[in-house]
Amino acid sequence: MTKVVILAEKPSQAKAYAEAFKIQEKTKTYIQLKPDDTFPNGATITWGVGHLVELKEPHDYKPEWKRWKLDQLPIVPDRFLEKVSKGKWEQFQAVKKLFQQADVLVNAADVDREGSNIFYSILRLTGVKGKPIQRLWINSLEKDEVRKGFNNLQSNDKDLRLFDEAKARQISDWMVGINASRLFTLLLQKKGYSNHLSIGRVQSPTVYLIYQRHKEIENFVSEPFYQIEGLFQSEKGSYKGLAKIKEKDKAKVQRLMDEHGLKENEAAQGIVKSLDKKTKHKKSPKLHSLSTLQSVANRRWKYTPSQVLKTMQKLYEKRLVSYPRTDCNFITENEFAYLVKNLNSYQETLNVSFKAASLRPNKRYVDSSKVQEHYAIIPTKTVPTQKKLSGLSREERNIYNEVMATTLAMFHTDYVYEETVIFTNVRDLPFKSTGRREVKRGWKELFPKPSKSNQEKEPDLPDVHKGEEVGARLQIKESMTQPPKPYTEGQLINMMKTCGKLMENEEDVEILKEVEGLGTEATRSSIIETIKTQKYIEVKKNNVYVTEKGVMLCEAIEGTLLSSPSMTAKWESYLKKIGNGEASKQMFIKQTSQFIEKLIQETPETIQQVNIRSTGEKKKWNEPIAKCPACSTGSIMDRYKFYACSAYKEGCKVTFPKRLAGKTLTPNMIKTLCEKKRTKVLKGFKGKKPFSTALTLDEDYKIKFDFKEKA
């Protein structure tokens, strides 16, 4: 009897798989399926909770690597090992037991390189070997798709290559993060910086992109420029036009006026020299990938990229949309066929009605050659009931409607408008006027109308005819050049994706185009969240600004590959080759190691130009907190993970923990203990039950609880 064990990435995914079959038993750690055509002997679905295992930390290899010291760099273990993630031991043990009992294992984690990493990292740590492994590869959690996927399981060859790719990325990111963060932090501390910097292969060049925009805005000097504007009065109404001149020097503009015998604000006569009307058609937008959806949602509702991904994940788990972490804007003929079938139901869901312009696939949207692992984000075959729709949150409803409208738009007619260009001559000086008139809304009917402030509306022009004489009044118009605007979060996602446009090296531009910039579709939103958490950037009214800490980071990494998207581009390009079986994981890790060696040699010199700034962070971990209660020479200092005497080299061994019984000990508490040997009663300690107590310092300078004092 073949025992099949399926690993899902998380409980919600396991539940969605199980609902496609008949359930025999549910427990805290697995779901047992009844035998059926797909699984003649039944099957067991278990799950991770995201990453059940993680790479070991430096001190797990060598205790001395816990302390941040320059002479210990580079930190590169001989072999990279994993451990069970904190708080996930119970689930790991359950998965391990099931893996040991299984005859066949199925990797049913997310269908991307991280899903492969999660499965094989867990498998490696369980020690289970030699069992046949198959891969579930689906784009939707609908019952039909799930059953179809399990009936057509794939071999794990590609999956193993993706695991190599993911592991190479994970190890290299670990090496860069651990070594570069310590290197830059310790060198800046020598110059008086009082906190620590976190540096990452993708997060640092992303901060640098924002810093570059910050410098452009900061260094921008607004200058006046001059144009000649004409206000014209025709029989059917007034309109404006501009002469073809734009100069910083007002005298040049005045000279042109004089050449044509024209004076400001003086009544003159104009004649309509030419009139050109063109009807233009605009196709509906391409189908959404995750990043285009994040951009639209940020522009329309100010949703953060992270919020969009979380909302999409919920809709995916509710079986309403296809796989969210896709970088593709195309579908295949299979998806197109079911969309055509459900067209009327989708229209009812969106509360719209239109006759399809065509039911034949169009290469703009339907192209199998452009679809690799995942197709574009589209609605699934499941058409939600009104009850299910009313149960969606506002964010879910907005995002679902956007996906639905973009999908239906490919069946709708073009947006049609008429563009009019008028040339009006005043004493042989031509003035150009442009206007636009909407003829047919077409696919735009499916979307909410943009607010007036967001509409780039060209004026309606009056109905004039060629040769018509019009009244004219001219003036020299003064305007000021405007600085570039800060990025919004939606624009930042686009910038990360297209930053190749900023590169000067043609080879780098090509690579960045091929790998689609910084990060991947699945990771960009979490990178933005990370640099927010690190306080390198802040978002105000949807605009992204670099902080003082971010400026300091960028000054520190300026000129190194850590500030350049090209390093990330080359890494991603090489990682793709590992995933395709054309390159080696070991070589990639070796090259990362060489990069770190080079960084350690070159950084001490480059760090000299960095200005140490007050970054507004509370922790000043190299400032004295109090005089050491044990020795007369040292002071108690914040050592990042604990408090200790500054005279440790002279032999003073006094240290205090940062956390005690689940409560964080603040510098003020430590100061009081050092100076008064006792604190007041403090709340928030955790034992079997939460408790309150005062703290005292004993003769050996150890912290003790004192329950005598009443709260």
TrEMBL record:
- Keyword Isomerase listed: yes
- Documented EC number(s): 5.6.2.1
The record places domain Topo IA-type catalytic at 159-600
Q: Tell me the SUPFAM superfamilies matching this sequence.
A: Prokaryotic type I DNA topoisomerase (SSF56712)
Task: List keywords of the entry alphabetically.
Answer: DNA-binding, Isomerase, Magnesium, Metal-binding, Topoisomerase
- Record keywords: Lipoprotein included? no
Matches recorded under Pfam families: Topoisom_bac, Toprim, Toprim_Crpt
Q: Which domain of life is it from?
A: Bacteria
Residue ranges, annotated region (Disordered):
445-464
Chemical reaction(s) catalysed? ATP-independent breakage of single-stranded DNA, followed by passage and rejoining
Q: Return the SMART domains for the record.
A: TOP1Ac, TOP1Bc, TOPRIM
Q: Which residue windows does the record flag with biased composition (Basic and acidic residues)?
A: 454-464
- What NCBIfam families is this protein classified in? PRK07726.1 (NF005829), topB (TIGR01056)
* PANTHER family, A to Z: DNA TOPOISOMERASE 3-ALPHA, PROKARYOTIC DNA TOPOISOMERASE
Family from the record: Belongs to the type IA topoisomerase family.
Identification of the protein by name: DNA topoisomerase
